[in-house]
Structure prediction request, 250 residues.
Amino acid sequence: DVNAAMARAKDNGAAVYVPDATKSLQGEVDQMNGLVDEKKMKKARKAAEPLLPKVEDLDKQAMDARAKAKADAEAAIKRATDAVGQAKQAEAAKYNAAGLKQAEGKLAEAKALMSDPMKYLEAKKLAEDAERQAKNAREAALAEKRRIEEERRRAEEERRRKEEEARRAEEERLKMFPPTYVVQKGDYLWRISGMQRIYKNPIFWPIIHDANSGKIADPDLIYPGQELTIPRDLSDQQMSNKLYRLWASY
Prediction:
């Protein structure tokens, strides 16, 4: 009866789930069986009588511990499954694919072990590892997304800063080199062309005349209050080439 009870306890996972108690009782069972081998039947029976309830209790402990281990493993697998789901929601597959893959692999192993009642403790450990790796993958993904977002924000700030600098520079340029000029009393095209804020060279007056040919019939006759267009989109070479053509037409 003791040996049969011990076999049942082992079948129920006593060595896995209550190893210390199993090892201790196994020693006593071995001593009992040793007495049987020595044909000391009375002593063997005397040893067996108090041992039987201990082994039966071990069997109950093993079943209780196995049930608890199963529940703990199932709970750990659920937590790991939730953690993997949260990692996916954080786009870990895009930003931390390796970490997510490891977590999914451990979780799959844990689920597979649940088919073996003797592997509940291993399943729980694998599930806990999977949960930890999934959380790490999620945090890594979120950190990478924050880094990318910060880079975008800085790039956008730099773009806006440059646009603002360009706008201010254009305002300053227009102040220094306005695209129009209002004729004042005593002005003439030669004088206007020579102004610092116009072309700084009187010889370019034909370009002003050409740009305002609809307003100026005679280049020698301009009047106060006239708003003249001052071309600003020509390079120095283009200005020189155009001036040459204009001079040739006069």
